[in-house]
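Quick start: read one record
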Amino acid sequence: MSTDKILFDRVTKTFGARAGRRATAGAVTALDQVTLGVRPGEFLVVVGPSGCGKSTLLDLLGGLSRPTGGQVLVDGRPVTGPGMDRGIVFQQYALLPWRTAAGNVAFGLEAKGVPRAERAGLVAHHLDLVGLGGFAGSYPHELSGGMKQRVAIARSLAYDPDILLMDEPFAALDAQTRDSLQDELLRIWERTGKTVVFITHGIDEAVHLGQRVAVMTSRPGRIKRVIDIDLGDRGAVEDVRSSEAFRQHRHQIWTLLRDEVRAAQAAERIAGTGADGGRIPAEADAGADRATSAAARDEEARVG
């Protein structure tokens, strides 16, 4: 019996085909026979080129979508929909603008039925955890981008999910804020012991955060290889991102990704035209996480 907290068991996701049925002409396969396990309390990062199905993978785990084939298991049980055992942090902050930071953090607790008196203590604790104890009464428009994302993280942690799913949560932030939040996220993970699945385009981010990094192929997405990350004692160096171990891991992952990025760029040049010369269905196009032409041209720079 598997000891994994999360298991993707031969998961396939095809847009334009119903579950259990053969794909029709014009269907797009986002994920193909993906098998990947995540250990309890692990910080796993998934990296891959644009359009490889990274976000689709997270949607399946979050219960926001169903696989066409295979199954997604959490604690040995199939995922059939969203659940309070899984918290999700998206790239967009998704904060309620009419609620304060404290009100946003309390939202999940209210949905869980936590009593008001208990909610207040949990909200204060989690705002302190992300360094926003002094901003409980601030509204989203009064907060910076980094502070908004801290609120989103606090909201997802407050109702105590076993698993935290993060879909490129720092992609829209400036480099300094992103680096700071990466360090803060590691501190929070170490304190809470959550199982984290983190999606990113960035190799540096993957190496810095992950205990393991799963490298995906270009579409249809498969797991090319899973890399164990060992940066030694982070406290022994002034900047772990400048260490030799960091550079070696970065080079290893880029070597695995390089051909996949080029394949994704080549596919992007002919994107929009199906095998029969027709347009790819809009549902498949969105669901398969296809980037724009500009994003594809920039891909090598982003992960190189």
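Residues 93-160 form one domain.
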